[in-house]
Amino acid sequence: MKQLAVNGRKQELTKVLLLGILAGGLAIPGRALAADLTVTADQTGPVYAATGDGVESNNLTIGSVTLATTITGSAYGGMGTSGGSYSDSNTVTLNNGTVTENLYGTYDPDIATYSTVTIHDGTVQGNVYGGYAQSGTANNNHVYVGTDASNTGDISIGGSVYGGYSEQGDVGSNSVEIDRGTVKGNVYGSYGAGGSGSSVTLGTEGSTIGPSIGGSLYGSYGTSGWAYANGLTI
Q1: Which are the contacts of 116, defined by CB distance < 8 A and separation ≥ 6?
Q2: Which of 83, 95, 145, 231 is the most buried (most CB within 10 A)?
Q3: pLDDT for 191-201, tens place per residue?
């Protein structure tokens, strides 16, 4: 069943859980759940913690403080496939190394929500997406760049940064926080048909070294012409 809103997503999950209990089990059919993958050796992408029609609560960690890992291609906390199910609550953490294409907390052909990308150190040569949806909504996704004061490695993003991105759907309540590093492209709290309640924050109060942004800043960008109640803090 294709979901069109976050509330609908939660209602559908409740029904599936109830049916599972009545059938004598708690499994959610068809969903890839709770996988943790740490990559410390070079790999050719796509690299993901989990993939399937609906991926949830999966975590991908790339590199470590002492190991710089190269992903040739894109990397995903959760990579959803077509079928109508939503994907949510997936994470990617780049500790050290290089991703030669894009970095996604969650990618899904339908709905991508409640997912996070955290970059402590390293390079992403393409774009960064907290959550990326094609036809549905992308809500409550987040990107954190250089927010760990204990890790002061160099950070470089060759493309743009999106808290939440939807090709055709609405976006809301997404955020991007960048405390240090270089972004050559634009920074969007949200990007979609229409968006509200999203934000971009650059730098921390009292810091003498902030991030460098090569493009423009948008709390939210609406391709169909509407965007409201969004914030930008520098």
Answers
A1: 77, 90, 91, 92, 105, 130, 141, 142, 143, 144
A2: 145
A3: 999 989 999 99
